[in-house]
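Model: You mentioned two targets. I'll fold them one after the other.
Researcher: Yes, keep them separate.
Model: Target one:
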Amino acid sequence: MSLDVPAELLERAERGEVADAEFVACVRDSLPYAWKVIDAVVADLRAGGGDFADNEIPPPSEAERGQLLRALASDAIRGGLERHHGVKLAFQNCHRVAAFTPVAVDSDRYRAFVSPRGQLLNQSPELRDC
């Protein structure tokens, strides 16, 4: 299971929809490394004043790598993080997380990052097993 869901939150989900804030808090508490990386990328984006920021530091262990994979491979989790932070997230190579401002999603930089060419150019032998 990728999220540690408190019993009361699970009960509310079984009865109907839950608030985005509750869901995002569950993600934050369940996937702390992923939260830290995404939070830092968003902070860099805001501090830099541009339309793009990314993290290229591989996770220190497979457990942390797994958190990033779970957070960004899930449409619900990624969407919740994007709404919470007001950004568009992009992901490459089990560790390279990028945050784009919403207006940058129609930019050449965004299209290059998410393109097959961008993916191929971001490969390296040391990341083959990530």
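Model: Target two:
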Amino acid sequence: MVFTPKYRRGPFTDEILTRCEEIMRAVCADFETELVEFNGEADHVHLLVHYPPKVAISRLVGSLKGVSARRLRQEFPGHIRKYLWGDHFWSPSYFAASCGGAPLAIIKEYIENQKRPG
């Protein structure tokens, strides 16, 4: 999955990406799914999630984005406000692709190699 912040603004620092990953791991655990890999850049995040067929991807995405937006705004209010205004953190859209046929190691390597801001 790929999520972008509203207006593709770049609010993510290494610290915020690390906290975002922690939040998203907790949400995945609540859904009985596994966040296999997480990485991002200043203006987007990549997630590799292993989830069972009983989980509706739209509900998982809604929770991942909703919980992370609320917590990141609470924990980093000054920084986030510089980049995003109004009530929205994430863009309403997202990219999700199934990789059932591809080896997870290849997808994981791709996500690991995404550049973090620095």
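Researcher: Noted. Anything on target two?
Model: The first strand starts at residue 2 and ends at 3.
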